[in-house]
Amino acid sequence: SCLAWQETAQALKTLAQAARGVAAATADPATASAMLDSAREVMDGSTMLISEAKQALVAPGDSESQQRLAQVAKSVSHSLSACVNCLPGQKDVDMALKNIGEASKKLLMETIPPCSKSFQEAQSDLNQTAADLNQSAGDVVHASKGTSSQLADASGKFSEDFDEFLDAGIEMAGHTQSKEDQFQVIGNLKNISMASSKLLLAAKSLSVDPGAANAKGLLAAAARSVTDSINQLINLCTQQAPGQKECDNALRELEAVRGLLDNPNEPVNDLSYFDCIESVMESSKVLGESMAGISHNCKTGDVPSFGDCVSVASKALCGLTEAAGQASYLVGVSDPNSQTGHQGLVDPVQFARANQAIQMACQNLVDPGSSPSQVLSAATIVAKHTSALCNACRLASSKTANPVAKRHFVQSAKEVANSTASLVKTIKALDGDFSDENREKCRVATAPLIEAVDNLTTFASNPEFASVPALISREGSAAQVPILQSARSMLDSSTQLLKTARSLVMNPKDPPTWSLLASYSRTVSDSIKSLITAIRDKAPGQRECDSAIDSINKCIRDIEHVSLAAISQNLPTRDDISLEALQEQLMSSVHEVGHLIEPISTAAKGEAAQLGHKISQLASYFEPLHSAAVGMASKLMHHQQQMNLLDQTKTLAESALQMLYAAKEGGGNPKAALAHDAIAEATQLMREAVDDLMVTLNEAASEVGIVGGMVDSIADSMGKMTKSVSGPEELGSLASQVTGDYSQLALQGHLAAATAEPEEIGVQIKLRVQELGHGCIVLVQKAGALQSCPSDSITKRELIEGARVVTEKVSMVLSVLQAGNKGTQACITAASAVSGIIADLGTTIMFASASTLNAETDTDSFADHRENILKTAKALVEDTKNLVSGAASGQEKLARAAQSSATTITQLTDVVKLGAASIGPDDPETQVVLLNAVKDVAKALGELIGATKCAAGKAADDSSMFQLKSAAKVMVTNVTSLLKTVKAVEDEATRGTRALEATIECIRQELTVFQSKDTPVKFTTPEEFIRMTKGITTATAKAVAAGNSARQEDVISTANLSRKVIADMLTACKQAAYHDGVSEEVRGRALLYGTECTNGYIRLLEHVLQVLQRPTAEQKQHLAVFSKRVAGAVTELIQTAEAMKGTEWVDPEDPTVIAETELLGAAASIEAAAKKLEQLKPRAKPKQADESLDFEEQILEAAKSIAAATSALVKSASAAQRELVAQGKVGSIPANAEDDGQWSQGLISAARMVAAATSNLCEAANASVQGHATEEKLISSAKQVAASTAQLLVACKVKADQDSEAMKRLQAAGNAVKRASDNLVKAAQKAAFDKADDENVVVKTKFVGGIAQIIAAQEEMLRKERELEEARKKLAQIRQQQYKFLPSELREDED
């Protein structure tokens, strides 16, 4: 925000100066006064804006403050617009816009005025005014790049032509035959009015800021839109003049694309250079055929075919122009002196077109005269363009690294999508009933969509997201000229040809016109031929390839001359430079050439625009390479070495020459497969030449003792050399490495000897390093001898012996260095001791926390140890001073200081542990506070010893000395904190306050370590990181509670807990952030939010400290604010940790995950039941004639279909549940656990009911088939399946989108279950009915026996009715009990 304020202030200062300059240069006093007044309003508004922004920063969560800020920003934007409108020429554009708006009101009249002209006259007027308006649009485009007066004249002319065109269009609308055609004409006129307004706005914007990003592209798109809108109207209105409208449309299209050739410094499309050539070839072929068709159809009088040929020719000419513009851009940008641009984050032209299309479609939607088909067409346009905008926002948010822009794109896409969804609902209602009420709802729904799209378009026009145009050099512009001239000539001659053809088709018997047509056809053909020739001749990289070929050929000739001189022993020695410098120059040049091989190969195969740049770089390295090779050869003593070096340099130059020829042939054409093979072969040869030359240079370096820059350990090199005896070809490079290692050792040994204490140590260092040097010389000599004669066994033994001697000498050098490095060794020993003390204190703190740290004797008290602690701490301070001074003194003093400090910290730790134990286990928190204080001292001493070791012997202004001083300050601070803590132990009133102060200081030190650039040694998992953040939430709650209670015990407990959880979180955060697989962006977020969380927690503890000192109600209320900030940072940390895990991670406690698991489990159990049914077979029965399917088989088939259907149902429910999570209707971690969890539980219970009911059905079917169950049990089981299926559908419908695919599949699966259940019920009922019919009742004939039979039947009926009633009551009780456990969704449905 600070940077933004500074930029705003600077911009306002520049605005004030510019406003005064414009006012001074304006002749009209009123205009000058208006300019100054508007600038003053901007200044006043900006002052208020900065003030409101400051208030918003103070209270970021205040919605009222944010609202005021937005209002003030909007006011400043309006003031800026008013200020811009006062510029010269802007008022004229505004006046033109106003005139267009006034003229467009004619389109709002309810009835079209009666026609005053004939159809032919009206049509002629419309064509003429359309041509004038199109020409005026082109003039506005050109004038926007000129002076303000030119723009004023052009915009005035454009508004006049628009008024005349509008009158001609309204006159033409009066001649339409139907109301629908009339509405279409008026609708097209409205579209032209909107496009015209956008053209003037774009021209106005470009004239104000010619360098604005995307301004030229938006202007060209607006002009193209005007042309397209005019063509649509002409196509609609000129049906009575065949052939003419096609010619007029073609002429307008050619005029619109002519602007692509004005300043081709931006890409026209995505075509590569060779795609442009292919496009030109194809389009020229199509154009030739269509021109022949135009001539032929003029002769035969076939006017419809003539119109088709004209349309085809127009498209071909536009394609030729676009290809020519793209090719010229690629030619210009491929020049080595040009700078390529880069693609923007979004395409503002696409956004502007979509915005205009959506606005036009919304106008048609709310137009009372729109037919149902027009409404549906407009709805389709809205859906298409809003979908494209949302996709563009999604891509932009994924590409940008700016978190603010990322969020804005996502939010804008959501607003567009939501407003589109609302509009679509109103359109559906309107489609069903075209009433005024529905149309008004539709009009209201369009307003939010238009606003959202406008806001998105404005945001996308931000210069930050714009494409950066290429900077074409003077040479690049000159190379573009032939292509542009040919393309312009083609457009001019094509325009004349189409005008001639237009008149010829009306009067085909005019010989002079035929002669003109033939002349223009030849001119078009010649222009296209010259265009193709120019594109081929100006192919990117060809000129650079030719220049590089000439340069390298010259180098080869020079090397040949030098080789002849070397053969005749007449090569003059170069004395102006050393051999070492020539060696370094040559190796550097060869390295750079080697690095360019792959980029040149890639460019030659498919990146034509980069070929020239890479070839020029390659050629620039060959001149110094050739010069260094000749100079080095002149200084070599051996003739064979000279010839080898020159021959290999020549080989490299020749392989580069072959590479250039292959690259020129390929030219960046991805389709030139034959050239690609040659490029690959040349690439391999050039790599081999580079490798051979590098081997020769390394060998030469090893023999003459030149340090090649290869610095590794000598001992490691010795080991490699002895292992390489079986491969003598590697000895040259290893010897070179040994030489380089010794050079570095000799340099450092000289410095160590000069600074060693006492002087005898320095003498010993020099002696041992010299002995090592003699051993290295012998080793390198033996390596060279073995390389010359690899089979010599004696030389092999001598090499191995030499390596052993060098290894011994290395150990002797290390020994003497350690003897002269007594202080540093003492620091290392002391640091190790301190590390052990810190670990021991950590264990003691664990015992204290568990209330198990007891005093040695019952009479022991803290007062007995207080003085010892204070005395030992003061002694440690003295040791600290000695350590700091010892870094600048000798090794002896440093060693004594390090040993003394290690001893003192051990003593201090022991007495503090005794003091803590004397406090007793009844007060563990105080024990922990005291132990933490001495642990902080030990940590600081460890850091101080490390800094002392690094700073020993360094100059006073060295950076390590500043680190030493910083570590000393921390040490003193922690010792002071320990002393205060010791004094406060027996003072209960200040004990908590002191503990909190120490904790705050400790957390600050931990944060400093966290913010350092050091990479952690260990790594941890994101799960462990999340676990560590949970402690912060607990500690925050305890801190707030301690602040509210103000009790010292609570404060001490909070201080101890805070210290631990923050330290653990910071450690886990850094270890997880640097874990493998974590991206740079996520790592940065983790470190940022870790810092924010810690700072927020420090501020919370500081506020608790304030509350302890001044415990007012207002102070305590602020605790909640600080705790919320910590909670917000913890939330961001958890989200970052989840991002580290990737998208596959799920929370096993998430209700939606539990729901999906249960659903899949239910599906598995149903499938298992279905497999069990598959194995069942009906009882074997005697064969009966004329029965195709018995009852048992019907039961099994129906049960199998139900099981299959319920399996599909549960899987569909699982898919619907996943879809809801993806749509955000159910969170993967629900914000409202009761809401989403309740829905998930409803789905779980419903899935379980389906699985249980299906299992019961399978058992009933099995029992029925085996004769152990009745048909009634089977019917009941089937009905239970249907009921549980309905409940599952209800549970899923609660939040699901009814039109989603998953919901449709779920509904279909539910219907399948219901049908299968119904079929089973019908089959069982039919069987029961047939069984009842088959039972014959035998009626007794005797009177008494008949009476008894009736009484028995009535008794059985009453018993059955009583059993039925009891069964009903039992069922009701079961349902009531189950109802209590149903989720709310299922309860409401049953109600």
UniProtKB/TrEMBL annotation:
Pfam assignment, any one: VBS
Annotated localization: Cytoplasm
This protein's GO CC annotations: cytoplasm; focal adhesion; plasma membrane
PROSITE patterns, alphabetized: I_LWEQ
Keywords: Coiled coil, Cytoplasm
InterPro entries: Alpha-catenin/vinculin-like_sf (IPR036723), I/LWEQ_dom_sf (IPR035964), ILWEQ_dom (IPR002558), Talin1/2-RS (IPR037438), Talin_IBS2B (IPR054082), TLN1-like_RS (IPR054060), Vinculin-bd_dom (IPR015009)
Residues in coiled coil: 1350-1377
GO molecular function, one term: actin filament binding
Predominant localisation class: cytoplasm
Protein name: Talin 2a
